[in-house]
Amino acid sequence: MNNKITCECGHVNPEGTELCEACGKPLxxxxxGQDNKNESLLNMRYDGSARRSQxxxxxxxxxxxxxxxxxxxxxxxIVITLxxxxxxxxxxxxxxxxxxxxxxxxYEDQYGLAGQIYYQLGLHNLxxxxxxxxxxxxxxxxxxxxxxxxxxxxxxxxxxxxPKRHERFMRKQRLFxxxxxxxxxxxxxxxxxxxxxxxxxxxxxxxxxxxFARWGPxxxxxxxxxxxxxxxxxxxxxxxxxxxxxxxxxxxKVIPSTEGQYYIKNEDFILETYDEDDPxxxxxxxxxxxxxxxxxxxxxxxxxxxxxxxxxxxxxLEVLKETHSKVNQPIKFDGYSLYQASFQQNEFSSMTFxxxxxxxxxxxxxxxxxxLSDPQSEYELxxxxxxxxxxxxxEYELxxxxxxxxxxxxxxxxxxxxxxxPGDAEPEVSFAGIGRNIDPTNENDYKLGIEDFEMRDVSGxxxxxxxxxxxxxxxxxxxxxxxxxxxYWNHRRIWIHPKDNEVWVxxxxxxxxxxxxxxxxxxxxxxxxxxxxxxxxxxxxxxxxRAKEDEHGVKHNQQ
Amino acid sequence: MELSTISSNLLYAxxxxxxxxxxxxxxxxxxxxxxxxxKAGKIGITLTVIGFLSQVGYFFTRWVASAHAPVSxxxxxxxxxxxxxxxxxxxxYSIYRLNILGLFTLPVxxxxxxYASMFPREISxxxxxxxxxxxxxxxxxxxxxQAILAVSFAAGLxxxxxxxxxxxxxxHTFWLEFVMYIVFSTLGFIIVSSAFSGFGYQVAxxxxxxxxxxxxxxxxxxxxxxxxxxxxxxxxxxxWFDAPVWMRGVDAAQKFNTLIWSLLSGLVLYGAVRxxxxxRIAASIQPWLKKANPxxxxxxxxxAVTIGFPIFTLGALIFAMIWAQQAWDRFWGWDPKEVWALIxxxxxxxxxxxxxxxxxxxxxxxxxxxxxxxxIMFNLIAVNLVISGLHSYA
Amino acid sequence: xxxxxxxxxxxxxxLTIMAGLVTYALFANFTNDDPVVAEGEQAPNFxxxxxxxxxxxxxxxxxxxxxMLNFWATYCEPCKDEMPHMEKLYEEYEDKGVxxxxxNLDSTNLVVKxxxxxxDISFPILHDKNGQVMDLYKVGNIPSSLFINAExxxxxxxxxxxxxxxxxxxxxxxxxxx
Lengths: 559, 394, 178
Prior knowledge:
The structure holds three protein chains of three kinds. By secondary structure, chain A is an alpha+beta fold. Chain A is 27% helix and 32% strand. Among the domains of chain A are: 51-161; 214-236 and 474-488, no CATH class; 240-345 and 460-473, no CATH class; 350-451, no CATH class. Chain B has helices at residues 3-27, 39-66, 74-96, 99-116, 134-163, 171-199, 252-277, 281-285, 294-328, 336-357, 362-391, and strands spanning 203-209, 212-218, 224-225, 230-231, 241-242. Chain B has a three-stranded antiparallel sheet with strand order 2-1-4, with no helix packed on it. Chain B has a two-stranded parallel sheet with strand order 3-5. Chains in contact: A-B, A-C.
């Protein structure tokens, strides 16, 4: 089966071609009873070339291919995706509900029945749901197939076009006109001046510019595909890591997910707020009430591990950089980024106690400071007094009547002390912590009072490595180039066709007809050619219908 | 005079100059020959440019006064959006010289600027995440993109009012009236808010928020009070009913009340105008637009999309992603604002495909332009005030 | 015909590739758990000092033996509850070629010292003060126990408290063949 179509100009066109690739003659015969007058304007989409999918439709593969090739299908996919995206914003996504709450309870509790339905439909995790991902994937497939199907034939047609066009092609262009004669030399000169590429064949002229704009859609689609593939790369191990680390001031810690290669020391965490008396912002600060943060910053040292020793041994560290991480200014090294993401200001670093007589606070037997990250077993005081730490609870809590620690972090430090007076006297036991000081026997002679304490801040840093970013950037850049290429330039063509004693002029552009008309006005100046009339005209509602209007309110006017 | 005072005076000046420009563009509908050297049109565009320069003056003086680009809160952003809309209009005008377009674009800009000034206008400090050049790189490009797309809306609306058959009722006439009603509601919101804040109206409630009794203040009489709220001011109107239970945030019920006021005042205004005109509002405007060439308007509407779409993509998606990557360690987080930017982008992508490949011109295309603008406004207003506000966590 | 056939092949290949990518994405999305040292994998080596001594121990040292690696801390009540079970079975299984190694995750020496004074523990306690080994083994919740056979392969990983029966069962599994 070979359904190639041979045009009267001799050019052989592929099956499905609507306008001859060479001379532009419409390859469908004129409808009976339709003369040149009321034939509708030519459909210049893809220059009438055959979309490949339409011509082969025999196997399942072809059917699937043709399905995705359709712009109608593509638009439906976009519309479904955008509607689905809307649904996900009705209530917050799961990642934005308060941490630690149970979503199955939370949504019903907060939003009633609607919330429960939302949760049960899985809309609380819509954007990572399988069906949303499939929708995005289908759009991707549609972009690939639709582009391939249109690019090849369009490229062929635009490469093959001849200056000499069929009369029917000329007459049925949207811009078409006749003039008695023309100064073609001046015309060519003026066209070239307006940066048209001019070709001639037997006195027929084709002036063309901005053809590369036609490739814009294909370029931007390539950009989108690269972007989507880049997003897909995130699922490939080693391309992407996402971790989190809490570092205390003064602490040196391995940075997780770096294979034990990098360490961080938190030198200082800084939280600044705006001065409420700052004349610049005074009014707003008073309106808002409360403090407005100005800066979150972690001053840190990044170390690289230099030895090759086994994990767990004390590492041999070398300073890689001394720097800081602020919001908007992550620390970067070797493909990793550390983001200032969080902080805590509720930990103690040291506590200072004094030992005094129970009845007399002024009779002090000595003071001692406990470094909470390394408390000693016992502290020697003056005059032979000793204090032994019997038990240490970094984050004290009473559980079933027994003191326990909830974590290893000194957020609420408490101690069981044993006070040894000089000599062989029996030691006394007492319990001391923030806001509590308990004498279990009520007979103690001595008491430990908190004299001072120091706090330390904790910085929470996100650890990220994302090798997919360059692909996403490339995809985005190509998309922008393509979309600008297609939107900010237009493919404009002007055909000049000598016919008997007249000169016919036709013009076409893929967008911006106003610009084409302006081009014509200037290029035709003094050449004897007049700017052709626009054969398409939208009918106003208030006027009496003169021609049959199609469903889109566009009238195909007769001449 | 202080810089911040100069700044707000320049904004006032711009506002009134725009209003004057609208009058002159309005006068052009009576001109005999369209486009060609209409005197009123010339004055109109000159005034527009002067107003724009005055607003640029506001922008930069405020920048100096606040030590950061004034695009950091709802008032500043929305005002800037209005300014970009005027810029977009000036650019499109310089290509097509359509006076009638000014009659549709400038009122939208003026409404947007007036709407913006209903929000707190104090110069506010920047929280750490906003302290970056990306603040103005991202925000200004996104606003410019949206503004150019908004010109497409203005042209689309102009097209619809010009073209829709008003001799009989249809879904076209219904939705066109609906658009008119929304415009009136915006106007209603501005009038009602200014009036009550002019009188210094305040009414206080006690209501349980997250299990704690909290004081809530309304600046408009309460039609819908906070759920389980108790009126604590004396001599003020008691609410007619309580806001639904799921509106839990501190401001949720108050915003709901404001919405009711806007819609009601919109209804009153629309009803009054309709009573005076004795026909559909769009039908009353239609005769004034006879001179406009629907082909050109259709092309302007489409052209605005082709110019605005790449800028919108760059500003609202690409720059947004770069910034988000830098500030929050992820370029995309499915935050409602981001999702709605994506929805806008998908919508205009569909618009372009329908127009290019499926031949949607004229009326259909104009309706799409209206729909796109509705999405942009939803992202600007509803996502900021309703979605994050009602959920109260933002 | 040749041309048509080529076209069909092209379409088939492209569609297959794209379908494959989509399947991969979906699959990866739903198995996207944090990486852990999972069952069936080789247990990575480490070296830590034994608590209360200057001696350091390496996992490698136990090659040829079964190893139960237990991550614990003094602030973790269930960890402390399973300690006596481990102590009870330790002597018997040590003779059978199974070593119990407990990695402590506390940050201060004092709390561990006081704990060891109270409990009579005879198996080695290693101190992972900087959390390096914890990071290596991606330990989240404790208690977490890994049962490693004589070939160094993780046979079983349990991220919760063990009963005496279960513990014995797993120890049997990593007992080297006599």
